[in-house]
Amino acid sequence: WLETIRGVTCYRDRLRVYAPTCYGACADAVERLTKRISEALGGATVYDAEGCWVNEKGELECEPVKVVESAHHCLSPSKAREVAEAIGDYAREADQRYLAVEEGTFFITSSEEFMESLKKFRM
Q1: How far apart are CA 113 and CA 60, in angstroms?
Q2: What are the residues whose beta carbons fall under 8 Å from the beta carbon of 20, sequence distance 6 or more?
Q3: pTM beyond 0.85
């Protein structure tokens, strides 16, 4: 029904990046990620969350996360590269071993593999 409202813009695609804040130690890296995604996609919404996993000892560990979310239309190759590089730069700056990124489908990948794929990224 929202599509029936005159002047409404419909975004079929949504990007979410789950960016650990390193308990505040990499807040600047999260801020840079947010700025770059906002510049590339025209804006973003950022909210607090908590990322949890079970460690090698079988214990639950949780840490604060910022979710950087933005809606967009299909991205041009240059915009897709801008966003991918922003995510990669965040992972490097924040020393993240894994990345959680959602764009329709939820992806988790090692940061190393993500960075390697950037070298081969051609659209």
Answers
A1: 25
A2: 26, 51, 63, 64, 65, 94, 96
A3: no
Mean pLDDT by 10 residues, the chain (123 residues): 66 89 96 97 95 95 96 83 94 93 77 83 62
What is the reported pLDDT for 77? 84
pLDDT of 71 reads 85
Contact (Cβ atoms closer than 8 angstroms) between residue 36 and residue 68: no
DSSP string, the chain: -GGGSTT-----EEEEEEEE-GGGTTHHHHHHHHHHHHHHHS--EEEEEEEEEE-TTS-EEEEEEEEEEEEESS--HHHHHHHHHHHHHHHHHTT-SEEEEEESEEEEEEHHHHHHHHHH---
